[in-house]
């Protein structure tokens, strides 16, 4: 119907940063607020989608009508996403840490006089967007990612869409001064096989509404 264009649709959304432990009290993280991903999950749920939000640590409240799985690390996020399949649409808005400490120390790393600072060896995290895009039979019909870029925005996003194997990339300009990362507004370009659409600057809330409408139209068209 008009009020629930996504009724019967299962949606999976990732949001927020991940925390990668160095030891029991320290971690590597990033400045993602989770605002965009949470808004997308809320917008999909409002349109009737059965929505699972897999979220890293954030101060954003759990959106109404959304099942929320709280995780900390990229590996936990990937496991929760796999468990969340099957889904018709996946939106990867999380700022997943590219690397994690290869070995998280079991005890707090102690500082001592004369002791050299510890070296933290890093290892690569799973790429959740690429993993969902390559999920074979279990692949969501529509897989959407974000590309935060500071230069050659559309060029890099177009390459990223192909490299990740996803259907759409929302390219956003996170250059210093745009206030995008951690801010309220977003300036995005929708990159798909059909080409590039420039969206006007709008709030992350409005980006979520617009994207949810586009998802509903696409799933209807392709069904
Ligand atoms: O490679 P890059 O981090 O620039 O790609 C960004 C997109 O990939 C975002 O949609 C992000 O959620 C997703 N991503 C992911 N898992 C990773 C790294 C990025 O899902 N390990």
UniProtKB/TrEMBL annotation:
Domain DNA/pantothenate metabolism flavoprotein C-terminal span(s) in chain numbering: 6-217
Region annotated Phosphopantothenate--cysteine ligase, chain positions: 11-223
Pathway, per record: Cofactor biosynthesis; coenzyme A biosynthesis; CoA from (R)-pantothenate: step 2/5; Cofactor biosynthesis; coenzyme A biosynthesis; CoA from (R)-pantothenate: step 3/5
Flavoprotein in keyword set: yes
One cellular component (GO) term of this entry: phosphopantothenoylcysteine decarboxylase complex
Cofactor annotation remark: Binds 1 FMN per subunit.
Catalytic activity: N-[(R)-4-phosphopantothenoyl]-L-cysteine + H(+) = (R)-4'-phosphopantetheine + CO2; (R)-4'-phosphopantothenate + L-cysteine + CTP = N-[(R)-4-phosphopantothenoyl]-L-cysteine + CMP + diphosphate + H(+)
GO MF annotation terms: FMN binding; metal ion binding; phosphopantothenate--cysteine ligase activity; phosphopantothenoylcysteine decarboxylase activity
Cofactor: Mg(2+); FMN
Any one GO biological process: coenzyme A biosynthetic process
Annotated EC: 4.1.1.36, 6.3.2.5
Positions that bind CTP: 98, 108, 126-129, 146, 160, 164
Family stated for the protein in its record: In the N-terminal section; belongs to the HFCD (homo-oligomeric flavin containing Cys decarboxylase) superfamily. In the C-terminal section; belongs to the PPC synthetase family.
Biological role: Catalyzes two steps in the biosynthesis of coenzyme A. In the first step cysteine is conjugated to 4'-phosphopantothenate to form 4-phosphopantothenoylcysteine, in the latter compound is decarboxylated to form 4'-phosphopantotheine.
Designated name of the protein: Coenzyme A biosynthesis bifunctional protein CoaBC
Species this protein is from: Hypericibacter adhaerens
Upper classification of the organism: Bacteria, Pseudomonadati, Pseudomonadota, Alphaproteobacteria, Rhodospirillales
Gene symbol of the encoding locus: coaBC
Part of the whole protein covered: 180 to 402 of 402
């Amino acid at each position: 119907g008009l009020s629930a264009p996504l009724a019967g649709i299962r949606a999976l959304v990732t949001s927020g940063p991940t925390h990668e432990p160095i030891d029991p009290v320290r971690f590597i993280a990033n400045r993602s607020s989770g605002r965009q991903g949470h808004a997308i999950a809320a917008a999909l749920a409002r349109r009737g989608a059965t929505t699972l939000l897999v979220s890293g640590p954030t101060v954003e409240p759990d959106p109404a009508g959304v099942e929320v799985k709280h995780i900390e690390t990229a590996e936990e996020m990937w496991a929760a996403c796999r468990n969340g399949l099957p889904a018709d649409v996946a939106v990867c808005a999380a700022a997943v840490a590219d690397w994690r400490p290869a070995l998280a120390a079991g005890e707090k790393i102690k500082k001592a006089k004369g002791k050299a600072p510890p070296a933290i060896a890093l290892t690569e995290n799973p790429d959740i967007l690429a993993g969902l895009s390559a999920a074979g039979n279990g692949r969501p019909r529509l897989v959407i990612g974000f590309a935060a870029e500071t230069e050659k925005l559309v060029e890099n996003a177009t390459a990223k869409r192909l490299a990740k194997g996803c259907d759409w990339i929302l390219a956003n300009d996170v250059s210093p001064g745009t206030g995008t990362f951690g801010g309220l507004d977003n300036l995005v370009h929708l990159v798909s096989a059909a080409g590039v659409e420039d969206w006007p600057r709008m709030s992350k809330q409005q980006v979520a509404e617009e994207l949810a409408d586009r998802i509903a139209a696409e799933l209807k068209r392709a069904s």
